[in-house]
Write a structure and sequence with these properties.
With about 200 residues, the protein is an alpha/beta fold. The chain has one domain: Rossmann fold, CATH 3.40.50. It has a 6-stranded parallel beta sheet. A 4-stranded mixed beta sheet has the order 4-7-5-6. Helix 6 packs across helix 7. The longest helix is centred in the last third of the chain and has 11 residues. The chain is globular. About 30% of the residues are buried.
Amino acid sequence: MRKTFIDCGVREGDGIAAFLGDKNVNFGSYYDCLRERSDQNEFELIGFVSPDFKCLNDTIRRFENHNFTLLEKLVWIYDGQADFDSDGESCDCRFFEISKIEGKEPWRHPNQNATIKPLECIDFSEFLINNFTSKDYIIVKLDIEGAEYDVLKKLIDSGVISLIKELYVEYHWWGNSKLRTDIESYINGQSDIYYRNDWP
């Protein structure tokens, strides 16, 4: 059995640090959200991050003594490229397609230096089905600034969500938030998934 912790939106890696036992990152809120365990050192660690994140090398160095892979791709619902509104560092970066949902004038990043740029994205459902089996123990942390609704819907519609044993989600008020009720209703009905919808 392959044990894997996948951090979608890894950035500087505080979520992984908390998973490995650090009770101090983000004032302990990440650690407190995660399920208690003693086998965390048996897990391989995978982090997805925007290719333009300015601290990529710092994240790699932080986990250089662990089985850690950093994938410089945006977690999304197809493979290819998507327009991303980003300054390369803040938490406000997001898919421009998601911003368009909000009304006549799409939301723009508050940093004047932010730009909309095509960046590489990955179909997360396909990634899971191509790399794991039902025998594996997969944990997913999903903090992707409004893209979570579309990604979760595809995971559910494709049946790939059945591969996930633990799921931690931060939901945002923007994006396809109207999908949340149906998404949570489905996940809460799956007894095989340990689910938290309150990732800080």
